[in-house]
Amino acid sequence: MKFLLVFDFDHTIIDENSDTWIVKCAPKQKLPNGLRNSYQPGHWTEYMGRVFVYLRENGVKEDEMKRTMTTIPFTAGMVDLLGFIDNNKELFDCIIVSDSNAVFIDWILKAADFRKVFDEVFTNPAAFSSTGYLTVQNFHSHHCAKCPENLCKRKVLKEFIDKQLEQGVCYARIVYIGDGGNDLCPVTFLKKDDIAMPRQGYTLEKKLSQLAQDLDPVECSVLVWSSATDIMSYLKLLTQE
């Protein structure tokens, strides 16, 4: 019986938002107002597509983007936590479910030699075109009214669990580690023995706290973290059970 660790990426594994960090490549490190104001709620992927077009049209190339992205700091304690998971892979399956994109996550994890820690990464597909534009697509389509149209993390998690069950893999416990509003939907999928670990002071913690105040708490346990060292302490306890 293994444990399944589910990580968000932005503001969880890394201490920034990878999509806004890339703006450091733009002229004067900012976007024109018209482009910034073109974002519509629930359509972040399309907005980032326009950002990538703007960067390419201003001469920003793949190698410069890659150099910039690999300077993003990891969250406090995260390097040690990922090292601990890597050393205990017989106990943990580990996946990322993120609204970033495949190119950014790949660059960042490979630069730090952490790609091998994760069994699968579920995020928006991305690739560079022959003309040097970074293009991003929606991860999937879904019918969840609570999630942005490109990604319902609950659907991803449920499909992954179902696929693992078909292969005879049943998890003793799921630990979900995240920070954002779009992490609430998958947390509501978790059961009594599972653990949601929201980052202290971020949207997910506030939403879970509000649900508890409204007497509509989630079924799983909730354990708040501020440094990834807190997560590692909990995982060490798990391994001793």
From TrEMBL:
<feature type="binding site">
    <location>
        <position position="8"/>
    </location>
    <ligand>
        <name>Mg(2+)</name>
    </ligand>
</feature>
<dbReference type="InterPro" id="IPR006384">
    <property type="entry name" value="HAD_hydro_PyrdxlP_Pase-like"/>
</dbReference>
<feature type="active site" description="Proton donor">
    <location>
        <position position="10"/>
    </location>
</feature>
<feature type="active site" description="Nucleophile">
    <location>
        <position position="8"/>
    </location>
</feature>
<dbReference type="InterPro" id="IPR016965">
    <property type="entry name" value="Pase_PHOSPHO-typ"/>
</dbReference>
<feature type="binding site">
    <location>
        <position position="19"/>
    </location>
    <ligand>
        <name>substrate</name>
    </ligand>
</feature>
<keyword id="KW-0460">Magnesium</keyword>
<keyword id="KW-0378">Hydrolase</keyword>
<dbReference type="GO" id="GO:0046872">
    <property type="term" value="F:metal ion binding"/>
</dbReference>
<feature type="binding site">
    <location>
        <position position="179"/>
    </location>
    <ligand>
        <name>Mg(2+)</name>
    </ligand>
</feature>
<dbReference type="InterPro" id="IPR036412">
    <property type="entry name" value="HAD-like_sf"/>
</dbReference>
<comment type="similarity">
    <text>Belongs to the HAD-like hydrolase superfamily. PHOSPHO family.</text>
</comment>
<dbReference type="InterPro" id="IPR023214">
    <property type="entry name" value="HAD_sf"/>
</dbReference>
<dbReference type="Pfam" id="PF06888">
    <property type="entry name" value="Put_Phosphatase"/>
</dbReference>
<keyword id="KW-0479">Metal-binding</keyword>
<protein>
    <submittedName>
        <fullName>PHOP2 phosphatase</fullName>
    </submittedName>
</protein>
<feature type="binding site">
    <location>
        <position position="99"/>
    </location>
    <ligand>
        <name>substrate</name>
    </ligand>
</feature>
<feature type="binding site">
    <location>
        <position position="10"/>
    </location>
    <ligand>
        <name>Mg(2+)</name>
    </ligand>
</feature>
<dbReference type="GO" id="GO:0016791">
    <property type="term" value="F:phosphatase activity"/>
</dbReference>
